[in-house]
Amino acid sequence: MRLSILDQAPISEGQSAKEALEASCQLAQVGDEYGFNRFWVAEHHALPSLASSTPEVFLGYVGSHTKQIRIGSGATLLPYYKPYKVAENFNMLATLFEGRVDLGIGRAPGGPSEASEALTDAFLPQVFKMPELVDELIEHNQNATANPPANPLPAVPPSLWMLGTSPKSATFAAEKGLSYCFGQFMSDEDGSEVVKQYKKEFQPRDGQDWPQAMLGISIVCADTSEEAHEIADSWVVWQLMQSEGATEKVPSSETARAYMDSMEDPAKVEAAKQKMIIGDPTDVVDELERLQESTGVDEFIIITITHSPEDKWKSYKLISKEVKNR
């Protein structure tokens, strides 16, 4: 079972953006040490509780502080940018960190409409042009003679991935011959059916002759299931706060408990937890094995958000150790 890490560089209550980014880099080092396959960082804009606005910049820092784990974007939001510049950015990373770079692309806005307007005057038209944008990116990624060249040209090009949360994105990735990551943690769709659809419809292209699928899931793991649920409360409350339009940072356990005590409908907490995997290492890996059997995915990419960076690092360590012990 291959495991990877997705991080959004969330900023916790009492933490600065710099500290959040440093903690994210330390998570990448944990992944490097414990045998995780990839470390991806998301792209979000104008969200005060997330520090991950420019993956292509942050990955240079992460790459220089890790040794073998693959590094990548999850995802670069292509409608905001010219494919040529994206290719240049990631060719630079792939030249510096040979054989370790992934370029995950998506088309979501990644923030409020004000941020979209600040980034481009034509976000929606660019979304509609996504097939052409991807074709141009593939050309610069696979064809060293593309004109103009996206220098520097790396010995090993970045691996291209499509990220999505719907059957439509699976079909798009399959038709373009891209590797595909389905964000189950952000979707109500059946990941099993979406991945099967992707593999069935996959059309090989040069450099990618077989379908490679990954599932993005939310997990909190601790020594005991009770402890894991207590740690997860901060993440769940933070999500509920965001759904109500709040911009608070990831709350502490104390803040989370106070919020839950004041809720008119406490069942919302348990409902949110049903979309996550929360438990001790045995329970978590049992569920991963069940998911792997039902979905047929090649890899899981795990997102974990906790108030304490130490709790997050420990969660990934426990999962890795349990998988290796089986």
TrEMBL record:
InterPro entries: Bact_Lucif_Oxidored, CmoO-like, Luciferase-like_dom, Luciferase-like_sf. This is LLM class flavin-dependent oxidoreductase. NCBIfam families: oxido_grp_1 (TIGR03558). Residues 1-298 form the Luciferase-like domain. To bacterial alkanal monooxygenase alpha and beta chains. CDD domains: Flavin_utilizing_monoxygenases (cd00347). PANTHER family: LUCIFERASE-LIKE MONOOXYGENASE (PTHR30137:SF19). Pfam families: Bac_luciferase. Signal peptide: none annotated.
